[in-house]
Amino acid sequence: MAVVPRPTTRARRGPRGRPITSTSGPSIGKRPASVTLAIRHEKNGTLTISTDAGKTWTDLSKEFVRVGLFDEKTLLCGRKKGLVRSDDGGKTWTDVSDVTPPGYVMTVRDGVGYWPTDKGLLVSKDKGKTWEIQGAAVAAVHGPFWGKKKDHMVVVGKDGFQETTDGGKSWKKAAPLPDGFKVGGVGPNYAWDSINDIFYASSMGKDTLRWKR
Fold this sequence. Notes:
The protein is mainly β and 213 residues long. The protein contains no helices and 20 strands. The strands form five sheets. Strands 1-2-4-5-6 form a five-stranded antiparallel sheet, with no helix packed on it.
């Protein structure tokens, strides 16, 4: 059964009602459902984590703009350039990649981490210790969203929804962006319902739109 992930970024309220960019997914496979990692944009990019489904929060380091997690201890984040990794819940950090993804949230399937980049998918199979580009170049900021098989993916960039069925070796346009919509790290938001083959786009203050093939 295919699992349809949530949009890669969510505009919502965090500690004390502050707006945040967060991730507790999207992912397919085993993940810590109660763990949420977030960035408080209004507080100099403070990284904050909850291990009890948002009941309490602990502030970590500052000046972050990208978030990702494999488990409650293994965090993958980014500042202005590159990616850093923590295996102790954010107490210490190590540089792991000099590639700077345009998107703000990492996605995970079956323990493999993914960041979309203009050069192709940036992929880690060892919980973020090492990273390499997988497949052909594709302009993407959001995703990937998965179909039933791991090689069937959709990403979203300035050229619309792009689809691959061979793990990123080749890409084709699946759906356009709605008129007036662009792509950015925080919003608008995009999603793909792989079961019903419907593409969604939403933006704050606007109706949610869909495109069905």
